[in-house]
C-alpha cells in the first residue's frame, strides 16, 4: 500500500528554512505536483530584516499554490495582484507563458509571530503551458469546501475529492486536502486517483501498520483505500491526481520542453520579463553557475 516514504530535507532559502519534499530522486512527481515545500515553522521577532522576504522571481509552465497554517504573507505579481494571505486561504497563481512575483512578510515584520505553511507547484498540461498568466485568491467554505466530524476537520484546497470541488481553477485532475485529526481519530483516503500521497506536517499517524511522523510523506500504490489513525493530534496534507507526463524543472521554471526553459532563462537574464509594479525593484538573479539537472522529472 505504501510505495515510498520521503523525509523532508531542510533547505535554507535565505531568510528561514523550508522542508523540501518534492521533487525527490526516487519520486519526482505525484500526479501533477512537481514541487512541495513546508515553509517553516519559523518564529520571528518584530522588525526582522527585509532580506527574509522572497524577492521578485519568475515562473513559466506551472501554477503555484500557497496555503498557511500560521502567519501571513503578502503576494505581489506582474499581472497587478496584491493581497495578503492568512491561514485557511489559498493563493493560486498560474504562470503559463510567464509571470513574476514576490512574497513579503510585512505583518510578521510589524508584529512578529510564526510562519508555517505549504507551497506547491502544479505542472500545467502541455495544452495550457503557454496560457495567459493569472492569479486568484480563495477563502471560505463556498470556495474551499469544509467538513468536520468525529475528530476530523477537513478542507479541500484544490481540485475534487470526497464528492466536493474547490473553486480554485485547476487545469488537470488533482486533489489537495488539509486534514486536522484529533488523537485517536480515523479517516480514509479513497482510491479515486491513480497517484496519491500524504504529508504529515505535524503529529503522528498510523497508516497500513506503519507510523509516519512530522515531515514525512508517504506515496501510495494505486487501487486501495488508505486508512489513517492519528496517534496524537496531527495535521496531514493529502495530494495527488493523474500524471501529465515528464517535466523539466530548472530553477523556477517548469516545462515539457528543454528549449522553452532555455528561452525563459535568457529572457529573465536579459530583463525581458516584467517585474511586479508594486515592488521595490530588487529581484532574484538566475545564478551564473547554475547547473541544470541531467534529465527531466
Main features:
disordered C terminus; about 300 residues; seven-stranded antiparallel β-sheet; Jelly Rolls
The SS-based structural class is mainly beta
The CATH superfamily is known as Jelly Rolls
The Cα radius of gyration reads 19 Å
Strand content: over 45%
What's the helix count?
2
Broad CATH class: Mainly Beta
Give the H and E element order: EEEEEEEEEEHEEEEEEEEEEEEEEEH
Count of extended strands: 25
Overall outline: globular
Low-confidence stretches: 292-297
Alpha carbon gap, first and last residue: 23 Å
Query: Under CATH, the topology is which?
Result: Jelly Rolls
The averaged pLDDT comes out at 92
Count of discrete domains: 1
Helix content: under 10%
Keywords: Iron, Metal-binding
Cofactor: Fe cation
InterPro entries: Pirin, Pirin_C_dom, Pirin_N_dom, RmlC-like_jellyroll, RmlC_Cupin_sf
GO molecular function: metal ion binding
Q: Any overview of this molecule?
A:
This protein has a single domain, classed as Sandwich (Jelly Rolls). It has two helices and 25 strands. Strands 1, 13, 14, 15, 16, 18, 21 and 23 form an eight-stranded antiparallel beta sheet that branches. A seven-stranded antiparallel beta sheet has the order 2-3-4-11-6-9-12.
Amino acid at each position: 500500500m505504501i510505495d515510498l516514504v520521503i523525509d523532508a530535507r531542510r533547505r535554507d532559502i535565505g531568510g528561514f528554512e523550508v522542508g523540501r519534499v518534492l521533487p525527490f530522486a526516487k519520486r519526482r512527481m505525484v500526479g501533477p505536483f512537481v514541487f512541495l515545500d513546508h515553509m517553516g515553522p519559523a518564529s520571528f521577532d518584530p522588525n526582522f530584516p527585509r532580506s527574509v522576504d522572497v524577492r521578485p522571481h519568475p515562473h513559466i509552465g506551472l501554477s503555484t499554490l500557497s496555503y498557511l497554517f500560521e502567519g501571513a504573507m503578502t503576494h505581489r505579481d506582474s499581472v497587478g495582484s496584491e493581497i495578503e494571505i492568512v491561514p485557511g486561504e489559498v493563493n493560486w497563481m498560474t504562470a503559463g507563458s510567464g509571470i513574476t512575483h514576490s512574497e513579503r512578510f510585512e505583518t510578521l515584520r510589524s508584529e512578529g509571530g510564526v510562519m508555517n505553511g505549504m507551497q506547491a507547484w502544479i505542472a500545467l498540461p502541455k495544452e495550457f503551458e503557454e496560457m495567459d498568466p493569472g492569479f486568484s485568491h480563495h477563502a471560505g467554505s463556498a470556495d474551499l469546501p469544509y467538513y468536520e466530524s468525529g475528530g476530523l476537520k477537513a478542507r479541500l484546497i484544490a481540485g475534487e475529492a470526497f464528492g466536493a470541488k474547490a473553486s480554485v481553477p485547476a487545469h488537470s485532475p488533482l486533489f489537495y486536502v488539509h486534514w486536522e485529526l484529533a488523537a485517536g481519530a480515523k479517516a480514509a483516503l479513497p482510491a479515486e486517483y491513480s497517484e496519491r500521497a500524504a504529508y504529515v506536517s505535524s503529529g503522528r499517524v498510523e497508516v497500513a501498520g506503519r507510523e509516519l511522523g512530522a515531515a514525512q510523506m508517504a506515496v501510495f500504490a494505486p487501487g486501495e483505500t488508505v486508512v489513517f489513525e492519528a496517534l496524537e493530534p496531527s495535521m496531514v496534507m493529502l495530494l495527488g491526481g493523474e500524471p501529465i507526463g515528464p517535466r523539466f524543472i530548472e530553477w523556477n521554471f517548469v516545462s515539457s520542453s528543454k528549449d522553452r526553459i532555455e528561452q525563459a532563462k535568457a529572457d529573465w537574464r536579459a530583463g525581458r520579463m516584467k517585474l511586479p509594479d508594486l515592488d521595490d525593484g530588487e529581484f532574484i538573479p538566475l545564478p551564473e553557475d547554475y547547473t541544470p539537472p541531467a534529465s527531466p522529472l
